[in-house]
């Protein structure tokens, strides 16, 4: 079994890269399950109904989110019908949507979980460690995938060390910079950050002039997505269905 994951999609440049490259990636890798992170897909923050269905139309089976999940108020109007959307379990408001999804793939029940880290993150109401322990104890699945949306590599690595024996794939998101620490951690495919799909000449997909002005001169700015040629980052893993453990993990990075 193969699982393909595509990192944070930032605005229209990221969506265009997904539309352009995901079909070819799926043809090459032949994944049984494809998951993308869409929390920055709508103008850099959040997701809309139109973009939700657009990402599914590009070839995503499920869409994970992050700290910007509810940045677009429109989501609250359609989140109950969005049965392929996975929002962070521990992000307020916790009563909207689902943070755990179960998919049947090749006769196996794959549990997919989205969690936010606590470090430098707003609106996180519960420890991701407590949430994950509770999910594993109460939900039945053969394999577990986690998108851990966090700011620091230390928190992500700690989470992976705690849950590697019970998860088959733990992927970090949020920092938009792909890390080179992909590894098989006791049979769990792990990477601290899968990277982003967004404009290459940017600061994390955002207009660099805007970020510099805000940083140096405290000029109040809006979140403007950078334009121009984009990159696509992600990771895929191979899982032995007999043992339920990962046997391979590989980074994906397509630059302009």
From TrEMBL:
Q: Name the domain of life this protein comes from.
A: Bacteria
For this UniProt entry, the molecular function terms from Gene Ontology, in alphabetical order, are: 2',3'-cyclic-nucleotide 3'-phosphodiesterase activity; metal ion binding
Q: Where does Fe cation 1 bind?
A: 8, 39-40, 176
Q: Which InterPro entries match?
A: Metallo-depent_PP-like (IPR029052), YmdB-like (IPR005235)
Q: Which residues form the active site?
A: 68
Give a yes or no for keyword Metal-binding in this entry: yes
What keyword terms does UniProt attach to this protein?
Metal-binding
- The answer, when asked if Electron transport is one of the entry's keywords, is no
Record: residues binding Fe cation 2: 39, 67, 149, 174
NCBIfam families linked to this entry:
TIGR00282 family metallophosphoesterase (TIGR00282)
- Its recorded name reads Putative metallophosphoesterase
Q: Which organism is it from?
A: Holdemania filiformis DSM 12042
């Amino acid at each position: 079994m193969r699982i393909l994951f595509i990192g944070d999609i930032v605005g229209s440049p990221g969506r265009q890269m997904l539309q352009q490259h995901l079909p070819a990636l799926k043809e090459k890798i032949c994944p049984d399950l494809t998951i993308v992170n869409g929390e920055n897909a709508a103008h850099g923050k959040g997701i809309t109904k139109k973009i939700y269905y657009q990402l599914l139309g590009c070839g995503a089976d499920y869409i994970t989110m992050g700290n910007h999940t509810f940045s677009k108020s429109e989501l609250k109007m359609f989140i109950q019908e969005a049965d392929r959307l996975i929002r962070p379990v521990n992000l307020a408001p916790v009563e909207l949507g689902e943070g755990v999804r179960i998919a049947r793939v090749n006769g196996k029940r794959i549990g997919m979980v989205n969690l936010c880290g606590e470090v430098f993150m707003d609106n996180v109401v519960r420890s991701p460690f407590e949430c994950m322990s509770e999910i594993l104890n109460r939900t039945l699945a053969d394999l577990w995938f986690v998108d851990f949306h966090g700011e620091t590599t230390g928190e992500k690595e700690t989470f992976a060390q705690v849950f590697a024996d019970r998860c088959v794939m733990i992927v970090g998101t949020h920092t938009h910079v792909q890390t080179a620490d992909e590894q098989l951690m006791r049979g769990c495919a792990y990477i601290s950050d899968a990277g982003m799909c967004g404009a290459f000449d940017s600061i994390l997909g955002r207009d660099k002039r805007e970020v510099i002005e805000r940083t140096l001169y405290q000029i109040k700015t809006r979140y403007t997505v950078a334009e121009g040629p984009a990159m696509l980052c992600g990771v895929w893993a191979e899982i032995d269905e007999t043992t339920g453990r990962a046997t391979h993990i590989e980074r994906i990075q397509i630059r302009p």
